[in-house]
Design brief:
The structure holds 2 protein chains of 2 kinds. Chain A is mostly helical. Chain A is built from 11 helices and no strands. Chain A is globular. In chain B, strands 3, 10, 11, 12, 13, 14, 15, 18, 19, 20 and 21 form an 11-stranded mixed β-sheet that branches. The chains are: A mainly alpha, B alpha+beta. The A-B interface holds A 34, 38-47, 49, 85-86, 152, 155-156, 159-160, 163, 165-173, 176-177, 270-274, 276, 280, 284, 287-289 and B 43, 45, 59, 61, 136-140, 142-143, 198, 200, 216-217, 219-223, 225, 227, 240-241, 243, 245-249, 251-253, 255-256, 258-259, 261, 439-442, 444-445, 449, 481-483.
Chain lengths: 325, 563
């Protein structure tokens, strides 16, 4: 298969996936009982008032008409209006996404670095009690543990000892009585990011550790590694140049696939640490039955997952020549 | 179900002033009070698990929003120490015209935070606007102005409130009336008043306020900052600013309290209350709160299924089989006490709690005896069976097995409370199944679905005001789809409700209110379970708190100061 054909095929596949996801996104929310209007509770929320709102939001139209309108708006880049905050959906989710991104990136970095290190160590010292078994069991235990429980452990045992904040994204009193410097703002933001990212990192690193261990065991058993040993190369050269590089492919796949899981984990982590990211925004939208915002969030996340898989496909194309043969 | 002001749970029936520092002491940098010198300055960090959902009074629901309005906007009167009504913006008032006219004399010299003078015209405009759109956009605020015909401002410091008939609770009702800046809000009355609901003060910070604070930074799920309004007509804030931070969970909040990041927690979670109380690290205050948990029964007379639950005798049996003591001990860790009245203990000091309304003792044998007497005998699986009935609401024979809806938005463990009740009711042959109700909005949608015909019972709570008017109103037909969570409909009760609001003689009104409380208890639209206690905690580096006065008194924020 030629390279261009491969890219076109993967692109079409990604676009179809997006359309299916968009459609499912629409259908799922309409299958739920009630609506953002029926759930309203206030002294002014008479049936007549709700009726008017239903018309205003177009919820009185047939599902098909709503679907066509939804698709049309999406094609124009219009994610709709938040029915709770009365602002464009993108405005409602932009800031939470920007808050979540650095936390998820740092968390992923922690998990990858820790996972790769532990995976390599376990593979290199295969069969030993501490470097392999204990190391792997620990990684698996963290991976199996509920993320919110890990978060609470971090709150109890790490936060106080390190003097790190356990809630929010900014110190409550920062900038109230004086204008903070850029450095103060950045360092304050970083301090608030550490514990959620750490929780995310230790909750996910086990996955990488297992995959890297398995993949490294495979490559370390190859003849070219034996040759490298025979040539007298240093251990780090064997691991880095001949072992890890050839064991990277599954890691790339895993990274792409885990984008969705990372976001799911972020929801729980953000709930524990009151971190105002996309996870809290999702919970908030669910609480308020703000369908438009929920659809917007799910759409953005879906596209992120599909896009990362698409990027992984392209990386495979570059990393593994067998893909196009 | 909580009212919009769960913080009113902060109010104790017998107010114990935590510190001797006076509410709203002087404005100098160092003021001598009965407790000594008041140290000014510092940022008061408050932790909460309930955020401010909106800064627009026409749409806000959450308790913290109502507390924010108290801090931002002038009130004619407010509740002060001792749960006594006192003047806020008003210095004095007189009643004339046979109780139909209230004339308030207002403190002069106040200004809005943008420098515009605060005058009686602002109050008259706010009141008349609420009245004008009471059936639409302003309905949520209109309850405070029931029977108000209009408001007039003959001069900048005099406000005249005219009623269409004498009312017995004018001042308690007016305590819930916030004066808005006319020069800001009169541009928002377009679209037949609907624009009042779409205006977002949080998008125009700092807010224009004439209370002790203006809000300079707002985040529903983050930190909201209250900075002193230099033009406030009353006692100035002791703190240089107040930062209210929202926590998604109590664990993080208590951790921050221990770390010194938070200075005051307005409601310590029950599972942490003992450890916080015994730690000796904080000042802890506890007292009877305003929140009463209950089992809510669908009381719609047209309820099609499981109609035996409309029978007060059946619910009496269920009450006998409900162990309130265990609920108080297990679910609330002892920070609650058995309670049976629709009105919470907070109203006892004001004379609104009928002492004859008391919880039944826990008595399984008595409960079984009642159900046996009603002919609901146990089936082979131990669950009682209800014989088939005929007539307009005929129903087939069925077991006494019901869904109990439990919202997720409770401030206690609903699952644990459900388990205790389910276990006890199983002993009398009644089975209940846990139904997840979701958040309060979803839960309310479940209750009201099909015009109150789809649900049987729920595990929820109410948080009332000191005046009983609101809590009595939730059982009226006009409150369907607004505050009614039972679907109860009884024209005679509705008439009594209207009447109690117009009785100007305290004794007469008290007698009628007590009668209505007894009726509610006898009919058992609810089985009230326990009255929660309120536990607050503050760092020892701060003092001067009035934890019971949240959402009632401006001193809730202005009084605390550094030790």
């Amino acid at each position: 298969m030629r390279g261009a054909d491969y890219v076109v095929k993967r692109s079409i596949f990604a676009l179809v996936t997006v359309w299916v996801a968009v459609t499912l996104n629409f259908i799922l929310f309409r299958l739920l009982p009630g609506s953002s209007v029926s759930g309203l509770r206030c002294q002014a929320c008479t049936p007549q008032f709700k009726e008017a709102l239903i018309k205003e939001y177009g919820l009185d139209k047939s599902k098909w008409q709503q679907y066509v309108t939804y698709l049309g708006n999406l094609l124009h880049g219009d994610l709709g209006y938040s029915q709770v905050n009365n602002i464009p959906v993108w405005d409602a989710i932009k800031e939470p996404i920007l808050n979540t991104l650095p936390m998820v990136l740092v968390g992923t970095l922690i998990s990858v670095v820790l996972g790769v290190f532990c995976g390599i160590l376990a593979a290199w010292r295969r069969g030993t009690l501490t470097a392999d078994k204990l190391n792997t069991w620990t990684a698996l235990a963290f991976y199996a543990a509920p993320t919110q429980w890990l978060g609470l452990l971090v709150v109890f045992y790490v936060a106080a000892n390190l003097g790190l904040p356990v809630a929010g994204i900014r110190s409550p009193d920062l900038g109230i009585l004086s204008t903070p410097s850029t450095w103060e703002v950045v360092s304050d933001r970083a301090r608030h990011l550490i514990l959620p990212a750490l929780t995310l990192g230790i909750g996910l690193y086990g996955e990488y550790a297992i995959v890297v261990r398995s993949s490294m065991l495979e490559t370390l058993g190859e003849d070219y590694v034996l040759t490298a040993r025979a040539k007298g190369l240093a251990n780090w050269q064997i691991i880095w140049k001949h072992g890890l590089r050839n064991a990277m492919l599954p890691l790339v796949t895993l990274l792409a696939l885990s984008v969705g899981y990372i976001v799911a984990g972020a929801i729980v982590v953000e709930d524990v640490f009151s971190y105002p990211g996309i996870g809290l925004a999702t919970i908030d939208a669910i609480d308020h039955r703000d369908y438009a915002v929920l659809q917007g969030i799910f759409l953005v996340l879906t596209i992120a997952v599909i896009f990362s898989n698409f990027v992984a496909d392209l990386l495979y194309f570059k990393l593994d020549p067998r893909v196009t043969t | 179900m909580s009212t919009r002001r769960p913080l009113i749970a902060l109010v104790a029936a017998a107010l114990v002033v935590m510190t001797a520092a006076g509410c709203g002491t002087g404005a100098s940098n160092s003021t001598s009070g009965s407790a000594g010198t008041v140290k000014k300055g510092g940022i008061l960090n408050i932790g909460t698990t309930s955020g401010i959902d909106s800064l627009n009074p026409f749409i806000a629901i959450e308790s913290q929003a109502y507390n924010a309005f108290v801090m931002e906007y002038p009130q004619l009167v407010q509740y002060g120490p001792g749960i006594k009504l006192e003047g806020d913006w008003a210095t004095s008032w007189k009643v004339s015209n046979g109780g139909k006219t209230y004339t308030f004399h207002l403190k002069p010299g106040g200004k809005w935070s943008d420098g515009v003078p605060l005058t009686a015209e602002d109050a008259a405009w706010t009141g008349n606007t609420i009245i004008k759109y009471k059936d639409g956009a302003s309905a949520v605020l209109a309850a405070a102005l029931t029977h108000v015909k209009d408001m007039q401002a003959p001069n900048p410091t005099t406000l005249v409130v005219n009623y269409d008939q004498p009312v017995g609770n004018a001042l308690p009702q007016l305590e819930q009336f916030w004066v808005l800046p006319k020069h800001v809000w009169d541009k928002q009355v377009g679209n037949n008043g609907k624009d009042l609901k779409t205006y977002r003060p949080e998008q125009h910070l700092p807010t224009v306020a004439a209370g002790p604070y203006t809000i300079t930074s707002y985040a529903e799920k983050g930190t909201t900052v209250f900075k002193p309004n230099p033009y406030f007509y009353g006692p100035k804030s002791n703190a240089a600013a107040v930062a209210l931070t929202y926590y998604t969970n109590s664990t993080s909040m208590i951790a921050d309290l221990q770390a010194g990041t938070v200075d005051f927690v307005d409601q310590v979670p029950f599972d942490a209350a003992s450890s916080v109380k015994n730690s000796g690290t904080f000042n802890v205050d506890e007292g009877a709160g305003a929140e009463v948990t209950n089992i809510t029964f669908n009381s719609n007379p047209a309820k099609p299924k499981n109609r035996e639950l409309l029978d007060p005798k059946v619910k009496e049996a269920l009450e006998y089989a409900t162990n309130r003591q265990q609920i108080a001990k297990t679910v609330f860790q002892g920070f609650a006490f058995p309670w049976a009245n629709l009105i919470s203990k907070q109203s006892q000091g004001a004379g609104w709690v009928n002492p004859a309304v008391k919880p039944l003792p826990y008595d399984i044998a008595k409960a079984n005896q009642i159900l046996d007497g009603l002919g609901y005998m146990r089936g082979s699986n131990g669950i009682r069976e209800v014989p088939a009935t005929t007539g307009k609401y005929a129903q087939p024979a069925h077991q006494m097995s019901y869904d109990m809806m439990v919202p997720t938005s409770l401030d206690f463990s609903g699952q644990r409370e459900f388990d205790i009740i389910a276990n006890d009711w199983a002993k009398i042959g009644v089975k209940i199944n846990f139904q997840n109700g979701g958040d309060s909005q979803q839960a309310y949608a479940i209750e009201t679905a099909g015009n109150y015909t789809k649900f049987d019972m729920a595990l929820w709570d109410w948080v009332g005001y000191i005046d009983p008017d609101f809590m009595l109103s939730v059982l009226t037909r006009p409150q369907w789809f607004s505050w009614s969570d039972t679907g109860y409909s009884n024209p005679a009760y509705d008439a009594e409700y209207i009447k109690q609001g117009t009785l100007t003689d305290f004794k007469q009104r008290q007698a009628l209110v007590w009668k209505m409380e007894q009726q509610a208890y006898d009919q058992r639209q609810y089985i009230q379970l326990v009255n929660e206690e309120l536990v607050t905690a503050n760092a020892k580096s701060w003092t001067g708190f009035y934890p019971q006065l949240g959402a009632y008194c401006k001193c809730y924020y202005t009084s605390p100061h550094q030790s």
